[in-house]
Amino acid sequence: xxxxxxxxxxxxxxxxxxxxxxxxxxxxxxxxxxxxxxxxxxxxxxxxxxxxxxxxxxxxxxxxxxxxxxxxxxxxxxxxxxxxxxxxxxxxxxxxxxxxxxxxxxxxxxxxxxxxxxxxxxxxxxxxxxxxxxxxxxxxxxxxxxxxxxxxxxxxxxxxxxxxxxxxxxxxxxxxxxxxxxxxxxxxxxxxxxxxxxxxxxxxxxxxxxxxxxxxxxxxxxxxxxxxxxxxxxxxxxxxxxxxxxxxxxxxxxxxxxxxxxxxxxxxxxxxxxxxxxxxxxxxxxxxxxxxxxxxxxxxxxxxxxxxxxxxxxxxxxxxxxxxxxxxxxxxxxxxxxxxxxxxxxxxxxxxxxxxxxxxxxxxxxxxxxxxxxxxx
Amino acid sequence: xxxxxxxxxxxxxxxxxxxxxxxxxxxxxxxxxxxxxxxxxxxxxxxxxxxxxxxxxxxxxxxxxxxxxxxxxxxxxxxxxxxxxxxxxxxxxxxxxxxxxxxxxxxxxxxxxxxxxxxxxxxxxxxxxxxxxxxxxxxxxxxxxxxxxxxxxxxxxxxxxxxxxxxxxxxxxxxxxxxxxxxxxxxxxxxxxxxxxxxxxxxxxxxxxxxxxxxxxxxxxxxxxxxxxxxxxxxxxxxxxxxxxxxxxxxxxxxxxxxxxxxxxxxxxxxxxxxxxxxxxxxxxxxxxxxxxxxxxxxxxxxxxxxxxxxxxxxxxxxxxxxxxxxxxxxxxxxxxxxxx
Lengths: 377, 341
Description:
The complex is a heterodimer.
Chain A: H1 42-67, H2 81-88, E1 96-98, H3 104-109, H4 114-117, H5 119-122, H6 131-134, H7 145-159, E2 166-171, H8 178-190, E3 194-200, E4 203-204, E5 207-208, H9 221-225, E6 229-233, H10 237-252, E7 258-263, H11 282-289, H12 293-303, H13 309-331, H14 351-365
Parallel strand pairs in A: 1-2, 2-3, 3-7, 6-7
Antiparallel strand pairs in A: 4-5
Helix pairs in contact in A: 1-2, 1-12, 1-13, 2-10, 7-8
Chain B: E1 6-7, H1 9-13, E2 18-21, H2 22-36, E3 40-44, H3 60-64, E4 69-71, H4 76-88, E5 92-96, H5 107-114, H6 117-120, E6 130-135, H7 150-154, E7 160-162, H8 167-179, E8 184-189, E9 196-199, E10 203-204, E11 212-215, E12 220-224, H9 228-241, E13 246-250, E14 253-255, H10 259-269, E15 272-279, H11 284-296, E16 305-309, H12 320-323, H13 327-334
Parallel strand pairs in B: 3-4, 3-5, 5-6, 6-8, 7-8, 12-13, 12-15, 15-16
Antiparallel strand pairs in B: 1-10, 2-9, 7-14, 11-13
Helix pairs in contact in B: 2-8, 4-5, 9-13, 10-11
Enzyme class (chain B): oxidoreductase
Protein name (chain B): 3-methyl-2-oxobutanoate dehydrogenase (2-methylpropanoyl-transferring)
InterPro entries (chain B): THDP-binding (IPR029061), Transketo_C/PFOR_II (IPR009014), Transketolase-like_Pyr-bd (IPR005475), Transketolase_C (IPR033248)
C-alpha cells in the first residue's frame, strides 16, 4: 500500500535494564542507561512535578470518597503518576488519547473536569466528558479494545493528511488479549501514527506478570511486529516524558508506531472491592513505595535549587483546591433524567423505543419511583 | 420482487434497465457511495485486487486507489476495532467480514463498542459505519462458511440490522446504510448474490427500516427475510395452485422490526408464519412470533408458526438441503393448522 513509508523492520531488542534519566535517589543518570535520551529542561520537569502532585491529591481524594460510598467504584492510579502523566504530557492538544478505566489522572492532565471524569464511576452515566473537545476517547473497560480504536483514528487522520497522533494506554494484563496483538500488528503494517504505552504495574487484578507472559520484557513484543520498543522505568517521569515525546514526534513525521513499556507498580488495590493482601506481600508494596515517582523528581528539583519552598506551597494549595472542588461536586447529587435512557441509542427515531419511553414516563408520573426521588445516594 | 422499486429521476434519465445480480448491485452501490462522498472508505480481507471472495468489491481499488479501498491484515476484531476509530474521526468505513462465521472474533468490538458508543457518550460520538456480512447457506460452503448470525446482532441494542433479498433493495439499502449516522450490520444472503433482476441504477426502494409486502394474498402471511423470501414466494406459488392465497412479507430490516407493515398484513389474513435458515431455538423467528401474537392476538385464527433450520450446527454441504427450510416444508407446516376451526 502506497501509504506505507519505506521502513526497515526493527530487529533490535529493547534494553534489558529499564531506561532511566533519574535514579531513585533523584540523581541524573549518565551513560548507556539513558538510551541516548536527554533530561528534559527544568521548566518542563517543574510542570510535570506540579501535574503529578495535583493528580496524586486527586487520586487520594477520590479513593476516600469511594470509601464514603460516594462512588460505586474507583481504580486508583496511586504510584503510576510518572507513567500516566509523563506519557500524556508528550501529546499536543490536537492529538488523541485512548484511556482505560485506570487512567483518570491522565484525563485530569488533559484538562477534563473532576465531575466529568467521575460521572461513570459514581454511576450517573457511562461517560461524562466531551470526547471531541478534549480529544480523549471514553475510558475503555474491555481490555485492549481501545488500542484498535487508536490505530483506526490515527490512520484516518493520516488519510486526511492531518498531523495527529493517537496514544493509548494498556495494562500488563491487556497485552495477553487478542486485540492488543491485532492493534500492534495493524499499526505496524499500516505504519499508523500510534503510540502504545503499556503500564506494567505488575498485577492484572491478582495475577502477577510472570503468570501473564514469558517474554523478558513487554517491550520485547514490539520487535515481533516490526516496530520500535522501549523498556522504561515507569516511575521516572523524565524518562517516560522523553521517550514518549520522541515516539510522538516519530509518529507525527510518518515514522510509524512505537510500543513503550513503563515499569511501575500499583500501590493501591485494583479497585475498592479488591483485597491485595491475598496476593502480594506487604514488603513488596513497601519496596515500591520507596521508589515513589513524585519523591524522586522532587529530590532532583530540590538538589538543583529549582523547587523553592514558595513553589511547593503554591502547588500544594492548588492540589488542595482541586481536592475540595472534587469533594464538592461528588457530594452534590446530580440531576438525572431517566427518560434520557432512550435518547442516545440510535440517531434515527425508533417506534419501539418511543413506546418504551412513553411507558416509563407514565410509570414515573404515576409515582412508581417516588421513593427514589431526592433519595441520598 | 422488484415491483416496489421506484426509479429516481436520475435513473429515468439514465440507460434502460439491464440484468444485474445482487453482487453487481452491491458493487454499484459501493462505487456510487465512494464517488459521492470521499469519507467513504472500504477495507477488509481480500477486498482489493481480488475484488472480494464474492467479487462485491470488484474493480473498486483500480478506480479509487489504495487509500480508499485496501486489504487489511487477516483479523476481524482488528477490522471492526479500527473502523470504530476511523468513524470517530469522521470517516464512513464500510468493512467486510467475508463470511458470517468469521465475524465472531469481532463480537466484542461489535457488542461492546460499535453498538454502545453513541449511548455511552450521550450521543457525542457517533459511528457512521457499515459492517457487510455475507450470510446464510445454500452455496455448498464447508464448515464455518454458512451460518446465520442475525439474532446475535439483532438482539443487541444500538445496532441496526438489515438484509436485502433482491438486487434493487441491495443497491438502495446499502446506499442508505452508508448514509446512516448509526452503525449498520448489512447482511447479504450468499445464495442470492447471483440472483438477477432488470435494474436501471441508481434505484431507490422503500426506506431500509420498512418491511415490504412482495406478494399480495388473503389467507396467510408468510414472513421471510434475505434468502427465505424466495422460499416464501415459491410456497405461495405452489399454494395458489391449490387455491390458497398467501401474502409474502419481506422484512428487509430485522432491527428495527416493522410492526406496522407486518401487523397490517396479519390482521388482513389472520394467519402468520415466519421462515428463516437459522436454528429455531431462541432464533429470530421467536421474536417475530411473539411480536405478532402480542399485538394481533385477537385477529389471529391460529398460532404463529416458525419454519426454521434444525437446532443443530450448520451441516456439511451434502447434507444442508435437509436442514434448510423449503417451500414444501412451509406448506406442510401450514397444514398443521386447523383450517376449519
